[in-house]
Write a structure and sequence with these properties.
The protein is of the alpha/beta class and 274 residues long. It contains eight helices and eight strands, in the order ααβαβααββαβαβββα.
Length: 274
């Protein structure tokens, strides 16, 4: 049986096929199978794996919380997100913390969190104290090749085949699994198609360099915007879900001009000398 949502998406692919002369049968089949595969994987798992990330306009997610959070690679812009918090962002974070979750963290993010949140006690800022209480009590899965122990309350080490271990976690009963920070781990999750949802807060800054959310080698695919809000400070608060393979089309002329053919040849020649 095909769900109504799946039928609607297949219908969009079919309409695209009918409207684009250059959309061939192989591309249509690939788009259809990609969507079916993504949806069947999501429905097969008992719980979602969600990426939560603060990022700049140019895709940098390194050290949003402070200068000493992660200065690796001589990154000098740490703390770039702090001054954009307003009442709306605080309320959304409060709602998010009110829902049950477990954490999946890379080693460096685990060490950042473990050196901070257990020591937040009686904070007059209610949201900070709520975050501390929820993060300290949540089950935490820590992916590391070097740690021999994880002492933060309710922490469990994951070693060996990371993708297989996380797939098993997704098929267990429990709340959604959230990834915070953990830029290196995120690359593994994306390449293994383990991500069910991205909750991205896009801040109105350009950082130029640093650790990126989508690094080289990220799995190519389409994403659907499921929700979007804008704070008074200009932060885009978005939710994206996987939408299968990229649907390609072309705005080029069916018969390329001589000038276009010459341009393509010039590009190929230039690439040989790069």
């Amino acid at each position: 049986m095909t769900s109504s949502g799946t039928k609607e998406q297949i219908g969009r692919v079919t309409r695209a096929f009918l409207s684009m002369k250059k959309y061939n049968r192989a591309e249509l089949t690939k788009a259809y199978e990609g969507r079916e595969r993504t949806m069947s994987t999501q429905h097969a798992n008992k719980r979602k794996l969600v990426l939560n990330a603060f990022m700049s306009i140019d895709g940098i997610m390194q050290a949003p919380g402070g200068p000493e959070e992660d200065p690796m690679g001589d990154f000098s812009h740490g703390g770039w997100s702090v001054n954009y918090w307003d009442e709306m962002t605080m309320n959304i974070m409060n709602e998010a913390l009110s829902e049950p979750f477990e954490l999946l963290l890379g080693r460096r993010t685990y060490e950042i969190f473990a050196a901070h949140w257990p020591f937040v006690k009686n904070d007059p800022e209610k949201l900070n104290q709520m975050a501390a209480d929820r993060l300290n009590s949540a089950r935490k899965y820590v992916v590391s090749k070097t740690l021999s122990r994880a002492d933060w309350t309710n922490s469990v080490l994951i070693k060996g085949d990371v993708a297989r271990a996380i797939e098993k976690l997704k098929n267990q009963d429990g709340p959604e699994i959230q990834v915070h920070g953990s830029s290196n781990l995120i690359q593994t999750l994306l390449q293994s198609n383990l991500v069910d949802e991205c909750r991205l807060w896009i801040f109105p800054v350009v950082l130029g360099r640093g650790k990126r959310l989508f690094g080289d080698g990220a799995h190519a695919g389409a994403w659907k915007l499921a929700d979007s809000k804008t704070s008074t400070s200009g932060v885009l608060i978005t939710t994206y879900t996987p939408a299968g393979e990229i649907q390609r089309g072309s705005a080029a002329l069916e018969v390329p001009t001589e000038a276009e053919l010459a341009r393509r040849k010039k590009m190929r020649d230039e690439e040989k000398h790069v």
